[in-house]
Prior knowledge:
The chain has 208 residues and is mainly alpha-helical. The chain has one domain (6-203). It is 80% helix and 0% strand. The chain has helices spanning 6-18, 22-34, 36-58, 61-66, 69-94, 106-122, 125-138, 145-169, 173-181, 183-203. α2 crosses α8. The protein is globular, with a radius of gyration of 18 Å. The protein starts with 5 loop residues before the first helix and ends in a 5-residue tail after the last helix.
Amino acid sequence: MEEINYLLIVAAAFAAIASPGPATLAIAGTSMSHGRFFGLSLAAGVLTGSLVWSTAAAFGLAAVLHTNVWVFEILRYCGALYLLYLAFKSLRSAFNSTPLDLPRNKTVTVRGHYFKGLLIHLTNPKAILFFGALYSIGVPTTAQPIELLSVILVVGAVSLLIFLGYAVLFSNRFARQVYLKSKVAFEAVFAVFFGVVGFKLLTSKIVE
C-alpha cells in the first residue's frame, strides 16, 4: 500500500463509532434525561478522548502500548470499574422517584459531563486497539506527518458528526417525552448494558 485509503478509513471508522457502545449509549442517555446542552457536553468529552487515541495510534503509541501489557491491564481495570459505577448510577436512577429536572448549576454540570465522556473513552483499551488497527490497514508505513494529520482530521470529523449527531437526535422533544414516560425501563437497560460490558471487560483479556 503506497497511498492512504481514505475510503476504507472512513467506512471502518463510521461502522465502529456509530455502533452501540458505552460512549454512544451514555450520550443518548444524557441527551434524553438532561437535554441537548448536556448531551453535547458529554459528546465533546467523548470526541476529545477519540482524538487522543487517534493521535496516539497515528504516531505509533498504539504499538508501544501493545508491547506493554501492564498498561492495557491498568486501562482494562479502570474502564471496567468506571462502567460498573455508571451501571450503579443508572440502576439507582431507575428506582429514584424524584421528578426529573435539569441541573441548575450549568457550569459545574457541563464540566462534569465533559469529563464523564472523556473518561469513558480514555479508559476503554479497545479504542486504542481499534485505532491501531485502523491506521495499520489504511495508512502506509511511509506516510508523512502531514498525511497522518489529515487522517486524524478525517477520523475526527467522522467522530464529531456521529457523537454530536447522537446528542442532537436523542435530545429532541419526542425522545425526551418517551424517556420521561419510560424512565425506569431506560435506566434499567443502561444499567444492564454498562454492567455487562464492565464485567466482560473486567474478566476478559484484551491482549495476550
